[in-house]
Amino acid sequence: MPIRIPKLLPAKEVLENENIFVMDNERAGTQDIRPLNILILNLMPEKQREEAQLLRLLGNTALQVNVSFLRTATHQAKHTSQLHLDQFYTVFDKIREKKFDGLIITGAPVEKYPFESVDYWDELKRIMEWSKTNVTSTLNICWGAQAALYYHFGIDKVLLPKKLSGIYRHTVQNPREKILRGFDDQFAAPHSRYTDVDREELAQHPEVRILAASEEAGPFILYANKGNQIMVTGHFEYDTETLALEYQRDLKKGIAPELPEHYFPTDDPLRSPVNTWRSHAHLFFSNWLNYYVYQETPYLWE
Asked: Where is the signal peptide (predicted)?
C-alpha cells in the first residue's frame, strides 16, 4: 500500500524515482480505505532532506499512510524556504483539536543547549502534552527522544566529551517486544549527536525500558507506556551519505570534526560508505506502524 502525500511535495519525485509506492491526495481520495494519519513534527534544519528520509521508510509497508507536516510557530526556519513551509506545513494551533494515529518528533541541532533555553521548548511541551490524549503512539528521534525522556520522565541529557558520529553495532535486549520483531540479535544504526541519556537517571525509571543498546553508543531504542512513547537516540532514517555530508559541512565550518566511526571503508573519506542499516530501518518503521499504530488505534477517534 502507498504513502499518501501532497501532490506537489518535492519528495514525491525523489521517492518515485526510487520505486517507492506513493500516492497523491487526489488519487487517494477515490479509495474507500481508512488511512493511518501520521503527523511529523520536523525540527531538522534541512527539512526537505528529512521529509524524504522519513517518507521513504513510512512508505514501505502494507498500510496506507496519510502524512501531515508540522513546524514550530515560535522558531523561524533558516534553511527551508517560506514558500515550502507555507505550502506543506501547518502549526500546532491549527491541528490541536484533531486526533492522529501516530506522531514523529525528529531530532534537532540544539542538543548542547539546556532544554529550557531552546526558543520553541514551551511550544514543544504543549505538543508533547497534547500527544498523550490525541496520539496513539509517538516516535521520538535523537534530540526528540532526549526531549521526550526529559519532559515525560525527568531524565536529563549529558554532554559527551566529543561528538558521537558513526555507524554502531547494537544488541537486542528484549527480543519479545513487538517493535523488534524480525530483528537480528545484533544490528547497525547511525548516530550523530553531542549528548547522551543520563544513565543514572534512566536507571531510576523502570517504566522506561531499554530494548536495544550499543557498547559504544549507549541506549538506542527505549520504550514506555505500552508503546505510547518510543524513543530512538540515533537516526535509523539517515541516508547512506548523510554522515558524510555532515562531516563535510563541519569541515567547511572549521570545526575540525573527527571521522565518523565505522563508516568510511578503511576510514578513507574519499571512499563511498556502505549502507549496513537500511533493512533494519525499514523493519523498525514497519513494526511501529503495524503494532503500535495500526493495531492500537481506533477506527474512528471520539
From this structure: none
In a domain, 153, yes or no: yes
Q: Is 280 a catalytic residue?
A: no
Query: What mean pLDDT is reported for the chain?
Result: 91
Can you give the CATH number for the domain in which 161 is found? 3.40.50.880
Three-class DSSP category at 59: coil
| C-alpha cell at position 110 | 540544539
Q: Which of 168, 163, 140 is nearest to 152 (CA)?
A: 140
Helix axes 143-153, 121-134, angle to 10 degrees: 70
185 in a domain, yes or no?
yes
Residue of 129, 121, 113, 112 whose CA lies nearest to 229: 129
**What is the total count of domains within the chain?**
1
Is residue 302 in a domain?
Answer: no
Of 142, 152, 191, 280, which residue is the catalytic one? Answer: 142
Q: Which residues form the domain of 192? A: 3-262+275-294
* pTM to 2 decimal places: 0.88
Active site residue 116: no
Backbone φ and ψ for 68, nearest 5 degrees, come out as -125, 145
Phi, psi of 7 (to 5 degrees): -60, -35
pLDDT digits (tens, 9 = 90+) for 125-161: 999 999 999 999 999 999 999 999 999 999 999 999 9
Active site residue 235: yes
